[in-house]
Amino acid sequence: MPNVCILTDSTVQFTQSIFPGHERVYVIPFELQETAAQEGRPFPGGIGLQKQLISPSPQEFIRFYARLSSEYDSILVLTLSSFLNPTLKNALLASYQPRNGAVVEVIDSQTAGVGLGMLVQIAADAASEGASLKEIDRRLRVNIP
Predict the structure, then answer these.
(1) pLDDT confidence band for 75 (50 / 70 / 90)
(2) What is the 3-state secondary structure (H, E, C) of the chain?
(3) Is the pLDDT reported for residue 17 higher than 90?
(4) Which of 87, 84, 92 is CA-nearest to residue 55?
(5) N or C: which end of the chain has fewer CB within 10 A?
(6) What pTM was estimated for this model as a whole?
């Protein structure tokens, strides 16, 4: 029986706190960094600082892959839209490393927030039913559009 887990990023928002397969879902965090405002660009509140999401690096993904590989045969990575952030690129770069003990599949969800959460829930439910990585991939690609 396939043993698949789902790795997503911290932009995910779930519509339910408990759902089938939730124990197979892992979240890689973003860093939140404050940066000075650029001159001529006003900010709400007028303080002059803005918050910026810093994507997990390829090295952080490699660490997650290594840890999850000890428990799972396959890791499905669902990230927020590649149009919004370079998270997908970093997850892909890390997936090419030969140190990964599990098969790693990286999918661009083309969404964020609740949309990403719904896709993760679909994947987790399928994984908990024993679906293969290929079958989960197929289900997701039908639902992404």
Answers:
(1) very high
(2) CCCEEEEEECCECCCCCCCCCHHHEEEECCEEEEEECCCCCCCCCCCCEEEEEECCCHHHHHHHHHHHHCCCCEEEEEECCCCCCCHHHHHHHHHCCCCCCCEEEEEECCCCHHHHHHHHHHHHHHHHCCCCHHHHHHHHHHHCC
(3) no
(4) 87
(5) C
(6) 0.85
